[in-house]
Amino acid sequence: MASGMTVAVVGATGAAGQATLRILEERKFPVRELRVFASERSVGKTVPFRGEPVRVQKIEPGAFKGVQIAFCSAGSVQSKAYAPMLVQAGAVVIDKSSAFRMDPNVPLVVPEINAHAARNHQGILACPNCTTIVTVMPLKPLHDAGRLRRVIAVSYQSVSGAGVNGIAELREQTLAWARGETIKPRHFPYPIAFNLIPAIDRFGPDGYTAEEMKLVNETRKILELPGLLISPTTVRVPVFTCHSIAVTAETERKITPAQARELFERFSGLKVWDDPTQERYPMPVEVEGQDDCFVGRIREDLSSPTGLNFWVVGDQLRKGAATNAVQIAELLLG
Questions:
Q1: Residue 72 annotated among the catalytic residues of the structure
Q2: Could you tell me which residues come within 8 angstroms of residue 67 by beta carbon, excluding any fewer than 6 positions away?
Q3: Is residue 192 a contact partner of residue 238, using CB atoms and an 8 Å limit?
Q4: Strand pairing of 5-10 and 69-72?
Q5: Which of 72, 121, 127, 130 is catalytic?
Q6: Can you list the domains of the chain with their CATH numbers?
Q7: How far apart (Å, rounded) are the C-alpha atoms in residues 21 and 26?
Q8: 130 is known as an active-site residue
Q9: pTM value?
């Protein structure tokens, strides 16, 4: 492996962990030594990195010694247990779970939007929820140009946002349907093949789910707009990869669709696919595997004189998780 840093990936066998390894390799992150960790049942297995098998290690005292940068791609329970251990061992932790996102002492970073926040870390930096990242990317240039006042966001979230189990469930149910067999949900509460589930995560007393409140609270923190009005709805859809969000953004100063297209085209990490005459707009099957978020269906909101409607699609395993995390690590090196 190339000279550079000692890097750890916790949760290396999951969907986000596997994507992190691919992104580290693709972006030629300076890894001198790679250590990978996962659950007990995965210890001893190997994952590929730069053409070589890397053995999954057990998390135990001393396992993190010498690690400089660690990517936590496991759940929030695991992150709360392991991140402090990594920091104590001398590592800087980039966490992709919800464990630390709303901690006032932990920066919540999307490098294209608030790179400055990374300077204030105390050993842990958080990646936003994948839906938040895809949604907030086009909101930032609109806010800079016209100051956001209100946002309505309806997300259509792929099964890989629920990890490898979600991917397996959609595949198994689709094959069962083709064979004429009864579809039996295991990971999701209802069948996901040929269906939509208008609730992701547990409900709160106000009728909003935890996933929806992540979108609200994280967007406010990233944009440094604690009073921004946001109305969220999250839906699980039978798509393997990429989250799609229908957004209505109302600004204090009117921004025309033409101006919005120009703002989006100039913003790093965004691409515009918006040509109704050619039926050109972003779709998951075309965006999958790419790091940019793609915006289309840009039009005036018929219900507000300063509102815009648009559609944004992003690969939530890449920009929504792994790519964003590696970009944060690159910021730290810089």
A1: no
A2: 6, 7, 8, 35, 86, 89, 90, 91
A3: yes
A4: parallel
A5: 130
A6: 5-127+321-333 (3.40.50.720), 132-316 (3.30.360.10)
A7: 9
A8: yes
A9: 0.94
